[in-house]
Amino acid sequence: MLEAIAGILPIDKGNVRWHGKPLPPSRRREAMLYLPDGVRPYQDQPVARLLTFFANVYRRSTNEVEDTVESAGLTPVLYKRVHALSKGYGRRLMLALGLLTPHPLLLMDEPFDGFDLRQIRDVAGVLRREAAKGRTLVFAIHQLMDAERVCDRFILLADGRVRGAGTLNDLRMRTGLTSGGLEDIFLALT
Amino acid sequence: MHSHETFRVQDAPLRPLLVKELWEILGGRALWTMLLLMCPLIGYSFFQAVSLYGEASAAGLQSSVLANSLSPLDGVLVPTLGASYVAVTLLFPFVAIRMLGQEKESGALRLLIQLPYRSSTLIAAKLVAVLAAWVLSSVPVLSAVAIWGMLGGHLSGPETLNLLFGHLLYGLLVGTIALFAASVSESAATAAIVTLAFTIGSWVLDFTVAGHPGILNWIARLSLTQLLRTFEQGLLSLGLVVGIGAALCGFAALATVWLPLGTSIRTKILRSTVCVFVTALVLGLATQIKLSIDVTEDKRNSRRRSAIARDFGQALGRDCASGAGRSSLCRPAPQCVGETRTGAAKSFYSSGGRTPKSAN
């Protein structure tokens, strides 16, 4: 779904609206960036070179790159080649690439895949700080606990249909589970 | 840090993209493996060519007709670059395919097409990298040419540059076909099969139907192998250059059409049809351009034409003067061609191809 929204998967029908106006697929990359899951781009290149490439494309300063490297926790692997990264560092690299871009909307597929609990909390903090700057982050997450930890609003999908949408309180009110977690709400709605 | 404004395509600088493509092609093993294979291949061809040319030149000291038929273009440059041609045909596609195929397989293409560059810009940047790879792969050939010069061998600038230009166009065409194949195919392996179908198919076409009359001859002229013949003869044909340029642009346009992942197959086919039509139109127009420049040092192509025309005229004149006494109209022709050639200045080599000599 995120690929279809980002315009990198052809769709049969439907459209994406941006500030109330239709946004054709060819112009979606101006407004949003999609970070796919399981992608290891340019595996023969060192991490630093890949980050420099993205930073130069979007005209980021050296300070901005250094901040991003620190936020994403990539300092220990900066000169390692991409193919040599662990799954967790691979995710951190994708996150750093996303942070280097200026798009108002960032779409991420399974951003916490490959992280342990402590790392999830760290990355969630980074993402929250990014959202606080005014950026909209949209995640596709299968682990509802992780989603509950980091997201403000939820769209619960099952079998290709929307089963619920809104804040955690909205969903609690709708299901009558006043103290229930997102997992309980999902089970109640599906 | 973030402006939260949309980032427009025209805002993106080109330099980082070019640098990335160059790093990609230089950092891959394919290019260096190809170079490793090319060096002995070209070296051996050069050695053989110089050896044979030296022997022929030595024999040429006894015969001015033989001496006049010797030229470093035919004797040394064409065989040496012939080895490069084989390598470019069989190995260069793998270098070019890697430029796009690996991005497809690793999923990096999904990131690349979201960058603020047009698809045509992405393909153009990859073509620049392909050009850089060709320049690197021509180092063994240029080394051979330099060694030939250091040995005292004669080189005609226009002839050499024309031949190198032909090989550059051929290399770029093979590279563009490979990019198109990588753009259309899901995997690098499929792209390699598609590209080799073009290049090796051209060889097969050349072997099987060349020399046949009619439509078969026309089909044989579509072979990529035929492209270099004109350059090897020392001719710079404007029509051929325009034709190759059109084919290059056509394949690059097709690669651009098939690059975006978010476009439906129907739309891609429609756009491809337009590309093919426009390319065919330009190719058709290119066949009408007859202008060609004889860049050979001895202007052999120009003289050959005029000699043939003159011989033909003389033959007709003799036949007319002597009535029906001669049975063959072509008999006097070789003598006349021999006289014409003997009268022209030619460079050749003796003593193993080391000493430049001039025969008049």
What are its keywords?
heterodimer, A: 190 residues, alpha/beta, Rossmann fold, 3-stranded parallel beta sheet, globular, B: 360 residues, mainly alpha, two-stranded antiparallel ribbon, 4 strands, 4% strand
Task: Describe this structure as you would to a colleague.
The complex is a heterodimer of chains A (190) and B (360). Chain A is α/β, with parallel strands linked by helices. Chain A has 2 domains: 2-143, Rossmann fold, CATH 3.40.50; 152-190, no CATH class. Chain A has 9 helices and 7 strands. Chain A has helices spanning 2-6, 28-31, 47-57, 62-72, 87-100, 117-132, 144-150, 168-175, 182-189; strands at residues 17-18, 21-22, 32-35, 105-109, 136-140, 153-158, 161-167. In chain A, the strands form 3 sheets. Chain A has a 3-stranded parallel sheet. In chain A, a hairpin with a 2-residue loop joins β1 (17-18) and β2 (21-22). In chain A, α3 (47-57) packs parallel to α5 and α4 runs antiparallel to α5 (87-100). Chain A is globular and about 50 Å long. The two termini of chain A are 19 Å apart. Helices cover 72% and strands 4% of the residues of chain B. Chain B has 16 helices and 4 strands. In chain B, strands 1-2 form a two-stranded antiparallel sheet. In chain B, strands 3-4 form a two-stranded antiparallel sheet. Chain B is globular and about 75 Å long. The A-B interface holds A 3, 6-10, 25, 29-31, 33-36, 38-45, 49, 52-53, 56-60, 64, 67, 97, 101-104, 133-135 and B 1-9, 12-13, 15-17, 19-20, 23-24, 27-28, 103, 106-108, 110-116, 260-265.
